[in-house]
Amino acid sequence: MRILVAGGGTGGHFYPALAMCEGLKKKYPAARFTYIGTRTGVEARVLPDYDWIAFHPILASGIVRGNWTKNVVGVMRLLAGFVQTVLLFLRYRPQLVIGVGGYSSFGPVILGAFLGRVLPIRTAIHEQNVIGGLANRWLSRFVDLVMLSFPQSERSFPHARKTVVTGNPIREEFLHVKRSPALYRHFGLEPNRRTILVFGGSKGATEITEQVLLGKEMIARNQDLQILLITGDDISEATIRDDLAISGVTNIVVKGYVYQMGAAFAIADLVVCRAGATSLAEITSCGKASMLVPWKEAADDHQRKNAEWMEEERACIVAGDDVMVHQGLVGAILGQMDDELGLERMAGNAMRMGQRSAESAILGEIHSLMRGGRL
Fold it and tell me: Which of 114, 117, 112 is nearest to 94 (CA)?
């Protein structure tokens, strides 16, 4: 089978795609994988380590409301990216095209959908968020299958041929790594301290990092706690580490990137992060208490909707603008860590919401789709 996956840009789009590729590789060992993304997305940094996936970046751009100059340039980039996509289709002749959202998914999926009317090509998209992304909403009219992470997402796709709720797949490491003293030592942490994992995701990490540094003295006074702070930037990592050393703060460990996030989750007593759909899938599948800081610039304010979904189930605390103004993020974190019962309750509710079989559900739907297409 020849499988083409398109999309990415942010970790929220890319990592579910990677989880799908890994699952499909196990189910179809002889399958050939092609991934279409961009040079600036997370996929460009991660996929070179996966020699069984042929990665091809294309030109892609979004549309900015009210900015005609940028839109003209954006349309030209989309057209150029479409030409690149046509050439890749001729080269790899995919039988299955999967879109995971993001600008780079539109051209490959729409081309696959139209070619699928005359050729044996099947198309599917996966939506990670409660509110469907713009690219996926448009594409849902033409693809064979729309896979959703949340039942509430169905209202975003009224014209889809078929929708099914599968959940949001996560990498296997999150499901199998267990807390151990060796994991703490791996990150330079102390096994006898309660641990708070703080990260901002592939977008919007700066605000969260700044909030932690503003409250570093408060953290330093709580030596029974420690923070693993992931900045998403190797340059700022070195600068922040030097600043903490000068200030004498020893219970904040800074990392630019952590590729073994399953290990970081395993030792966390509280996860503080943005409200991207993939982070929520990881939190719920691992059964972790969390404090969510929705990224206000997210398209269609989807991170706030994601966080509200978790909050309604009492599976998280949402740190909105009011929390930032009155307590600060660190104040809110320390207050939550004082509530052991609240942490246990959130973790239990999160575990109840987890969809640990999402990958299996997706593989089943894809198998049915391909069997129906006699491929």
Answer: 112
Contacts of residue 130, defined as CB under 8 A and 6 or more positions apart, other chains included, come to 149, 150, 152, 153, 277, 302, 305, 306, 309
| Same-fold call for 2-168+357-372 versus 173-353 | yes
**pLDDT one-digit tens code per residue, 346-374:** 999 999 999 999 999 999 999 999 987 54
Would you call 44 exposed, middle or buried from its count of C-beta atoms within 10 A (0-12, 13-18, 19+)? middle
> Per 3-state DSSP, what percentage of the chain is helix, strand, and coil (rounded to 5)?
50, 15, 35
Sequence letter at residue 226: Q
What is the side-by-side order of every strand in the sheet holding 252-255? Answer: 252-255, 225-230, 194-199, 270-273, 290-292, 317-318
Cβ atoms within 10 A of the Cβ of 353, count? 18
Banded pLDDT at 189 (limits 50, 70, 90): very high
Give bridge partners of residue 55 from the DSSP assignment: 35
> Above 80 in pLDDT, residue 90?
yes
> Are residues 332 and 321 in contact, defined by beta-carbon separation less than 8 angstroms?
no
Q: What is the DSSP string of 321-344?
A: HHHHHHTHHHHHHHHHHT-HHHHH
3-state secondary structure 94-124: CCEEEECCCHHHHHHHHHHHHHCCCCCCEEE
C-beta of residue 342 within 8 angstroms of C-beta of residue 353: no
Beta-sheet strand order (sheet of 163-165): 53-57, 32-37, 2-6, 96-99, 122-127, 145-148, 163-165
Q: How far is CA 23 from CA 16, 103, 123, 316, in A?
A: 11, 24, 17, 29
Q: Are strands 32-37 and 122-127 parallel, antiparallel or unpaired?
A: unpaired
- Name the class of domain 2-168+357-372: alpha beta
Each domain of the chain, given as residue ranges in start order, spans 2-168+357-372, 173-353
The 8-class DSSP code of residue 2 comes to E
Query: What are 172's two structure tokens?
Result: 């296997």
pTM score above 0.85: yes
Class of domain 173-353: alpha beta
